[in-house]
Design goal:
about 325 residues; about 5% strand; mainly alpha; 2 strands; two-stranded antiparallel sheet
Length: about 325
Amino acid sequence: MPPRLNILGLGRHIPASRTVPYNPRPALCLRLAPSRTITADEKPLPEADKGPGPNQGQLPHVSEEAAATGKIMGEGGPELEQGTPVQEVLKRDEESKDKAPKVLQEQIQSSSSSSTGTRSFSTSARSRQEAAVINFEDSGIEMAGHSFELPALPIPANMHLKHRYAPIVKQVTNLLMRDGKLSVAQRNMAMILNHLRTASPPTVNPDRPLLPGSPPATHLPLNPTLYLTLAIDSVAPLLRLRSQKGMAGGGVALQMPVPLALRQRRRQAVMWILDAASKKPTRGSGRGGFAQKVAEELVAIVEGRSGVWDRRGGIHKLAVGARANLNVRRSRR
């Protein structure tokens, strides 16, 4: 029978393990050389020789080269500031001279017979500084080539870009505008004026005359802006009624007549016209339907058939009756 293995007693006979000292490796240390600074006394490092860049060493312009050559040869070269006249260029090229305009050919022939030394046609304009000093009126230079005369200075205020339309046309256009669409309102205004221009002359009602001093009705289509002005100003109210509380005592409101300015009168008249036009039945389809109804309402006003006349008469009748309330206001003061 094999002997038993005594594990507990086995450790007594095993020698202790030998301890090995641990020597760690030294850390790698990189020492950088200090950067060398170049002082003002030292010269900079030499740079490599480089050739000329793409924009360096270019050849001079043809005119500059011709001017330098003419100076060396003692001949008159081209003028660099003003340029060479067209006549001199055509004299050196016979083929171009034959194809030149007749005006230039005649000037070349006249200059060859009698040289005046003028430069009517030049390939380059004068400098801005010289052109600013020239006064065409004092120098007597004729502004040839214009179909119409030049505008007189100072330019009138109505020739400004923002004020190129008549005041009443601009006001009516703004009242026609909806949702800020000015181009649509301008298109409708153009359709209204076109209808007034192409429509037959109106027949004025003697019971409802237009403003005094107006031209005959047969002349109105010739000037649609005047046509529009007469139609609006004829039905524009002169007064409006304002309700003022406490004038009669006890919190009772009284109707006070108030005069209107020109733009206020026209605005009220245009609002009446647009209201009457919107109540008319629509005929057909298209984007010019409302403009057509407004134009027809304007023609009806001039002929005395519109209901806007009744609204104007009613406002004036109430305003005249409310004149007595003005004395109440003065007595309370």
